[in-house]
Design goal:
The protein has strands at 2-13, 18-34, 37-49, 59-71, 80-95, 105-115, 121-132, 138-147. It has 149 residues and is mostly beta strands. The protein has a single domain, classed as Porin (Beta Barrel), CATH 2.40.160. It starts with a strand and ends with a strand.
Length: 149
């Protein structure tokens, strides 16, 4: 379980009317090994507050997400497969003039990870359905690669 709090004075608004930024989040990760693989649950809540005076790409809002996955124990080639499902939602409270996101948005992701070396090396195929309150719903398909050493 993790939590953070962020504060920065005069981070938003205008020079004549500066506003402070306050943000916080809490998230949790739970992994449970079974004889047939590893079950994973993850979730989080985020709050961004620019004092209702965001500037540029900044947005006042709240975000939520939940994810679950299952890592199969059988190695196929150099890695293991892990199907994952994630749901995310962002509630816009006050959008900045250049934010690009002005409507509440939800995303449902269905992915398949190929885990080569834990968090150090993996490849993911991801399908996402994006739901936007005022229309413009769309689909996204991505191939992601993560390598860190």
């Amino acid at each position: 379980m993790g939590a953070t709090v962020q504060y920065q004075g005069d981070a938003a608004g205008t020079a004549a009317r500066p506003k402070e930024f306050v943000g916080f989040d809490v998230d949790v990760l739970f992994e449970y090994p079974l004889a047939v693989g590893v079950f994973t649950l993850e979730g989080g809540f985020y709050n961004y507050d620019f004092g209702d005076q965001p500037v540029g790409g900044q947005i006042d809002g709240r975000a939520y997400y939940g994810q679950m996955g299952f890592l199969f124990p059988q190695k196929i080639g150099i890695g293991k497969f892990q199907p994952v499902f994630r749901f995310q939602h962002f509630d816009v409270q006050a959008a900045g003039p250049a934010a690009g996101v002005n409507d509440d948005t939800s995303r449902a992701n269905f992915g398949l990870n190929y885990v080569i070396d834990g968090h150090n090396a993996r490849v993911m195929l991801d399908y996402t359905r994006v739901f936007i309150d005022k229309g413009n719903d769309h689909n996204e398909i991505k191939i992601l690669v993560q390598v860190q050493y």
